[in-house]
Amino acid sequence: MCGFVGMISSTPVAAQIGLGMQMIQHRGQDAAGIGTWDDRRVHLVKGLGMIPQAVPEQAWPTLHGNAGIGHVRYPTAGAVSTAEDAQPFRTRSPGILLAHNGNVTNVPEVTAWLRDQGHVVLSSCDAEPILLTFACALTNRRPAGHTTEDVVAAVREVHARVRGAYSVVAIVEVDGQPTMVAFRDPHAIRPGVYGQSSSGAWMVASESVALDVLEIEKRGDLPYGQVALLRAGQEPVLIPVSEGQPRHCAFERIYFARPDSHMEDGRINRTRWLMGRRLAREWRERGHEADIVVPVPDSSRTAAMAMADELQIQHRDGFVKNRYSGRTFIMPDQASRDAALRLKLNPIREMFEGRKVLLVDDSIVRGSTMRRIVGMVRALKPESLHIAIFSPPVTHPCFYGIDMPTRAELVATQFEGQDLEVALTTYFGADSVTFLTQEGTRAVLGPNLCDACFSGDYVVPVSEAERSAIEAERRAG
Ligand code: SF4
Question: Are 412 and 420 in contact (CB under 8 A)?
Answer without folding.
Answer: yes
